[in-house]
TrEMBL record:
Name of the protein in question: Unannotated protein
Pfam families for the chain: HTH_PafC, WYL
Residues passing through the membrane, by range: none
Residue span(s) of domain WYL: 142-206
Ranges where the PafC HTH domain occurs: 10-119
Length: 301
């Protein structure tokens, strides 16, 4: 039997309190605490929580009535909780999603509980007539492998599906970070094939194989092993830009100094976010950004 955490033990006790108190009315608070192996202060806290439980609606007519101010405990209005409850479509969907999140968070731990969650999920899906199902995030294993590669500084070989070319290619990459943008998760990595930094949508990565430790940082193109600090001004779309550039804090003025390892990466991101972000002071970078933007615009003329 797995050892539950304190919150789980508290929930389990409260579930046991209702049937126990229904057959042990006017039991003393001290005796009740001894019966459940907790202090009187702890049992009083859980009885207070129990008094706020009941059926949806949560008016005084649906809540459990618990009285213990006199030092003796009585419980009323608990009978409705013994009645079978018909779950709505929304309630079933919410339970399924919550159970799936709980199962994914276990990550192989407590297999007995995972099996029980699977059985309950299957039963709830049947109650919905199959119209509600909860599928695990297909990228969980991929993200776990990529995070391991980032932590251990190992290069990996990935099978990547490019939707623009509608073809699958094998890439050798050196993972840097995983970021989120517009509801999608991306791997930012140095691609040895492209000889530059690229972003790969995680849900389009199929196969990952480790290529061993990265002995030295790739130094092709504009990448450096030491960071270059660039002063920037963010004037709009602050949240998306901060997430894309990895800015943790941005003051009201919108000015930030960003450490970068690749001018190519910075130029692509500034052009993509234009005109909501601007590089300050560094005329060399500003000139390259202007030229890149001009080349991009020329493609549409």
């Amino acid at each position: 039997m797995p050892e539950f955490s304190a919150p789980l033990k508290e929930v389990a006790r409260m579930l046991d309190l209702v049937p126990y108190l229904s057959t042990h009315s006017f039991i003393s608070l001290k005796q009740l605490a001894e019966e459940f192996h907790v202090s009187e202060k702890e049992i009083a806290k859980e009885l207070t929580t129990l008094s706020m439980c009941g059926l949806p609606g949560y008016t005084p007519y649906e809540l459990i009535e618990v009285f213990f101010e006199s030092g003796f405990v009585t419980i009323n209005n608990h009978d409705p909780l013994d009645m079978p409850r018909a779950l709505s479509f929304t309630e079933i969907a919410t339970l399924l999603l919550g159970l799936e999140l709980l199962r994914n968070s276990l990550e192989g731990e407590l297999p007995g509980i995972s099996d029980e969650i699977s059985a309950l999920t299957s039963h709830l899906s049947q109650l919905s007539g199959g119209s509600v199902t909860a599928e695990p995030d297909s990228t969980i294993d991929t993200v776990r492998e990529l995070n391991r590669a980032i932590e251990n500084r190992t290069a990996v070989s990935i099978s990547y599906h490019s939707t623009s070319k509608d073809q699958v290619s094998i890439r050798e990459v050196e993972p840097v970070e995983i970021s989120d943008n517009d509801g999608q998760r991306y791997l930012n990595a140095y691609c040895r094939l492209a000889q530059g930094f690229r972003s790969f949508r995680v849900d389009r990565i199929a196969i990952i194989e480790s290529l061993g430790s990265i002995t030295q940082v790739s130094n092709i193109g504009s990448q450096t092993s030491e960071p270059i600090f660039v002063d920037m001004q963010v004037t709009g779309n602050r949240r998306a830009i901060c997430e894309e550039l990895g800015v943790k804090e941005l003051n009201e003025s919108g000015k930030v100094t960003l450490p970068i390892f690749s001018s190519d990466w910075l130029i692509r991101n500034v052009v993509a976010a234009s005109p909501a972000v601007e590089v300050l002071v560094d005329e060399g970078l500003r000139s390259e950004i202007r030229l890149t933007a001009a080349r991009v615009l020329a493609l549409y003329s």
